[in-house]
Amino acid sequence: MDASDIRSDLSDVLYTADEIQQRLDDMAAQIERDYDGRELLLVGVLNGALMVMADLSRTLTRHCEMDWMAISSYGSGTQSSGVVRILKDLNTDLAGRHVLVVEDIVDTGLTLAYLIQNLKSRNPASLEVMAMFRKPDALNSPVTVKYVGFDLPNEFVVGYGLDYAGRYRNLRDVGTLSPHVYS
Ligand code: PRP
After folding, report:
1. Rounded (5°) CA angle 81-140-67
2. Is any atom of ligand 1 closer than 6 Å to the C-beta of 163?
3. Beta-carbon neighbour count of residue 122 at 10 Å?
4. CA of 143 to the centre of ligand 1 (A)
5. In the predicted model, what is the mean pLDDT of residues 171-181?
6. Interval between CA 136 and ligand 1 midpoint (Å)
7. Whose CA is nearest to atom 14 of ligand 1?
């Protein structure tokens, strides 16, 4: 669905589907340059990374492999605790592979910090992160995100994989949620 389909649910449209694809074009070109001559394994983190994984992989004009992890944060509330449980592990052996983790969003960075530590122990040849969106707190995170799409404000942002209560992931654009939806 598009922002126009759920206009009253959004207080603002931050990035349109076209703007997201344009940014992905730039990022894909940079990734192609950086991984020239090397096999590339994209590791998507379910569920949010579904959209960016599908679009980034198809924007690339070279081969790549894809695998998926599903993880869940322990703890209650909306803030991630940094303690992560693996619900679905990779099918691929990472030893000697050039791995690019694909995330929809880095917020506190705690999920990513755990994930990077876990994946590093599997001895990949290289390990980098691509995140379509970054929240302000991510700047204090110990994890370096090499490829960042867009910075977001500290608000309820939905769309392009980002959900609120399980909804809005299938919104093509990205926008801030209207307070009447969550208050
Ligand atoms: C989101 C996102 C990251 C994590 C980032 O996942 O996909 O994995 O939160 O938050 P952090 O930087 O504060 O750790 P979420 O747990 O919401 O699950 P989802 O991908 O299924 O939406």
Report:
1. 60
2. yes
3. 15
4. 14
5. 97
6. 15
7. 111
CB 105, CB 168: distance < 8 Å: no
Residue 140 in this model has a pLDDT that exceeds 90: no
Q: Measuring CA to CA, which residue among 177, 131, 172 is closest to residue 158? A: 177
Q: Which of 71, 111, 171 to mutate to test the pocket of ligand 1 (most atoms within 8 A of CB)?
A: 111
Residues paired with 126 in a beta bridge: 98
What is the overall mean pLDDT for the chain?
94
Q: Tell me the backbone φ, ψ of residue 2, rounded to 5 degrees.
A: -105, 165
Q: Which two tokens stand for residue 14?
A: 């931050």
User: Using the 8-state DSSP alphabet, how is residue 27 labeled?
Assistant: H
pLDDT digits (tens, 9 = 90+) for 30-52: 999 999 999 999 999 999 999 99
Residue 52 near ligand 1, beta carbon < 6 Å: no
Geometric angle at alpha carbon 118, from 57 and 154, rounded to 5°? 65
Predicted pLDDT of residue 148:
97
0.85 exceeded by pTM: yes
